[in-house]
Amino acid sequence: MNVFRLLGDLSHLASILILLHKIQTTRSCRGISFKTQALYVVVFLTRYLDLFLGDWVSLYNTAMKLFFIGSSCYILYLMKLRFRPTHDPAIDTFRVEYLVGPSLILALIFNYKYTLVEILWAFSIYLEAVAIMPQLFMLQRTGEAETITTHYLAALGAYRGLYIPNWIYRYFSDGTVDPIAVIAGLVQTGLYLDFFYVYFTRVLQGQKFELPA
Amino acid sequence: FEVPEGHDEL
């Protein structure tokens, strides 16, 4: 564990708390892509299978995994049942097959071992890299976002961004590199670049998140 | 470099 990794994880944690706060206080999931949230549930369930196989890493690791699985399922519940009328499927139209299919194929080709657990782990890494796309697509389509939603996305993007110095640190401290995680992580972080540009130049200057027409 | 053993990242 190094400071970048810790800050990254805390940022991930913060992003989920911001999202929950947004849904609870506005009593609405307007502007949030159900598809992206559903993909995160798939990502966490397929990646954290090791929880049930007895591979113990640390209390921190287990607690975080349980939190991510629990909170992502809870968010789906809020969106699908509790605040269902506030979700508009007509603007959440990204085809998730285009993300799940290629992720599965990549996982079958590029993995560390031909076992179910390792293939699902690789699948979860590839899927996470692109899971934000329905959300970004929705943002692009509507051209604007509530400020709180942009803070959620910024925290989520910061989490992935912070994993990069973490990997550089690990390379120098333990000589290890996880190529699957690194390549997928770079792609994932890259997807946020446009968003971050608008976030820094508009939202953090006190303006509304609006895309030029 | 080596690939880390197991997956300790989240």
From TrEMBL, chain A:
Transmembrane segments: 57-77, 98-114, 180-200
Keyword Transmembrane helix among record annotations: yes
Matches recorded under InterPro entries: ER_ret_rcpt
Protein localization: Endoplasmic reticulum membrane
Record GO terms (molecular function): ER retention sequence binding
Superkingdom: Eukaryota
Keywords: Endoplasmic reticulum, ER-Golgi transport, Membrane, Protein transport, Receptor, Transmembrane, Transmembrane helix, Transport
Membrane topology annotation: Multi-pass membrane protein
Any one GO BP annotation for this protein: protein retention in ER lumen
Keyword Nucleus: no
A Gene Ontology term for the protein's cellular component: endoplasmic reticulum membrane
Sequence similarity: Belongs to the ERD2 family.
Descriptive protein name: ER lumen protein-retaining receptor
